[in-house]
């Protein structure tokens, strides 16, 4: 089980009373020195925010079109982002690749495409185990560059709060590089970072999360009653939640009620990540339950996270054919449920990495050894990402808006 930790409460004064602060937060690092952490997060909270309420409202208006079946959401980027100049250079490459994919999807579907990067903040990872054994030594797991380093030595694996500052400055430079050409998204995982960017918008009287445009709650932190759900329920951004194969229809209906009690169009996107083998069986009852309870959400598909396998060498990989199978099954489920297949969420990068099996140059697991660079999960390379865009462009049925669903 992932460790649960109570967030420190001593800085509640600068955030105002916040219900989420008293809830248990899954997947938080064991920061070694609370005073040091507090100094860093207070400093962050004084720095200029990374996004603006106006940008977020603009994205929200685009998501309203996705929900109405008039647009398609294309979201993608690294599993775990790099820091510094590597991240800045990587971001412009991803922006170019996402733009090319969006063109193909737009042409194929005859729909507008809303393009969102997994970047300028995707620095932290939830993990299934808190420790791992490397060469007989038990070490804390790597939790993304926001928390610790990937090298398997104890000093690197110690959580370091100054990394939060490196993430902020990297995100700032990535956003400058993108110059407004791409919306940003990341998993709002490390609440000590996110809380520093929860800011009051005087114009609307609402709190916004200004570390990103589109935060999501991961599969491992979407506990009803947990801190992540309560924290995001209290910001005005559009939100996303990952929905894995063990989710029950009741759980997801309850999440809709907590995160979108006012049933605001475009507010909530559910990201189905069931795995190719489970999606046809698991997804329909959840989609139907939400619809029957009068909630209207955007449904998109993450065909990556339910399809991770380990090679004989112990590498994590994914087969492009399985990724495509899940996408095809998702489109079929959505058509059967008479709902818009609203988009796709991918782990992908530009260039010729060899992290997923399939397509030119990566026909077997042995080929993965050539150029496996990911800090965490395997990403589609440029050619695999473009072939996925082509599949989407061809295979999505014409969307039927939710209002016209029969029965
Ligand atoms: C991710 O998107 O990198 C991730 C960890 O996803 P999930 O929460 O769906 O497992
Ligand atoms: Co991942």
TrEMBL record:
UniProt xrefs under Gene3D superfamilies: Aldolase class I (3.20.20.70)
Pfam families: DAHP_synth_2
Obligatory cofactor(s): Mn(2+); Co(2+); Cd(2+)
Key word Phosphoprotein present: no
Binding-site positions, phosphoenolpyruvate: 118, 219-220, 242, 273
The protein's annotated pathway: Metabolic intermediate biosynthesis; chorismate biosynthesis; chorismate from D-erythrose 4-phosphate and phosphoenolpyruvate: step 1/7
Enzymatic class: transferase
UniProt GO MF annotations: 3-deoxy-7-phosphoheptulonate synthase activity
Binding site for Mn(2+): 79, 305, 347, 377
BP GO annotations: amino acid biosynthetic process; aromatic amino acid family biosynthetic process; chorismate biosynthetic process
SUPFAM superfamilies: Aldolase (SSF51569)
Catalytic activity reported: D-erythrose 4-phosphate + phosphoenolpyruvate + H2O = 7-phospho-2-dehydro-3-deoxy-D-arabino-heptonate + phosphate
Statement: the UniProt record of this protein carries the keyword Thylakoid: no
Cofactor binding mode and count: Binds 1 divalent cation per subunit. The enzyme is active with manganese, cobalt or cadmium ions.
Similarity comment: Belongs to the class-II DAHP synthase family.
Protein's name according to its UniProt entry: Phospho-2-dehydro-3-deoxyheptonate aldolase
Organism expressing this protein natively: Rhizocola hellebori
Gene: phzC1
């Amino acid at each position: 089980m992932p460790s649960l930790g109570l967030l420190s409460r001593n800085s509640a004064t600068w955030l105002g009373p916040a219900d989420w602060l008293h809830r248990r937060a899954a997947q938080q690092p064991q920061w070694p020195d609370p005073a040091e952490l507090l100094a860093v997060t207070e400093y962050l909270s004084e720095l200029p925010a990374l996004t603006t309420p106006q940008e977020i409202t603009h994205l929200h208006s685009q998501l309203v079109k996705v929900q109405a079946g008039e647009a398609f959401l294309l979201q993608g980027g690294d599993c775990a982002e790099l820091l510094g100049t590597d991240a800045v250079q990587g971001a412009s490459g991803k922006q170019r690749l996402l733009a090319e994919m969006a063109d193909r999807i737009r042409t194929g579907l005859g729909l507008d495409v809303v393009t969102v990067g997994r970047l300028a903040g995707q620095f932290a990872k939830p993990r299934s185990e808190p420790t791992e054994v490397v060469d007989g030594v038990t070490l804390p797991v790597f939790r993304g560059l926001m928390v610790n380093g990937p090298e398997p030595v104890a000093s690197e694996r110690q959580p370091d709060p100054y990394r939060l500052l490196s993430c902020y400055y990297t995100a700032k430079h990535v956003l400058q590089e993108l110059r407004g050409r791409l919306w940003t998204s990341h998993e709002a995982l490390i609440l000590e970072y996110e809380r520093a960017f929860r800011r009051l918008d005087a114009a609307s009287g609402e709190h916004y999360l200004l570390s990103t445009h589109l935060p999501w709650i991961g599969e491992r932190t979407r506990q009803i009653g947990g801190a992540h759900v309560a924290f995001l329920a209290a910001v005005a951004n559009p939100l996303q939640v990952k929905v894995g194969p063990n989710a029950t229809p009741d759980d997801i209906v309850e999440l809709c009620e907590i995160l979108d009690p006012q049933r605001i169009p475009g507010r909530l996107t559910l990201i189905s990540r069931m795995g190719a083998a489970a999606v046809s069986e698991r997804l329909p009852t959840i989609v139907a339950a939400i619809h029957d309870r009068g909630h209207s959400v955007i449904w998109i598909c993450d065909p990556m996270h339910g399809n991770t396998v380990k090679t004989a060498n112990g590498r994590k990989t994914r087969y492009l054919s399985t990724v495509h199978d899940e996408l095809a099954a998702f489109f079929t489920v959505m058509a059967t449920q008479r709902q818009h297949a609203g988009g796709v969420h991918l782990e992908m990068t530009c260039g010729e990495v060899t992290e997923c099996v399939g397509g030119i140059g990566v026909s077997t697991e042995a080929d993965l050894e050539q150029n496996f660079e990911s800090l965490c999960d395997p990403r589609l390379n440029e050619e695999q990402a473009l072939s996925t865009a082509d599949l989407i462009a061809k295979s999505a049925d014409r969307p039927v808006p939710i209002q016209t669903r029969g029965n």
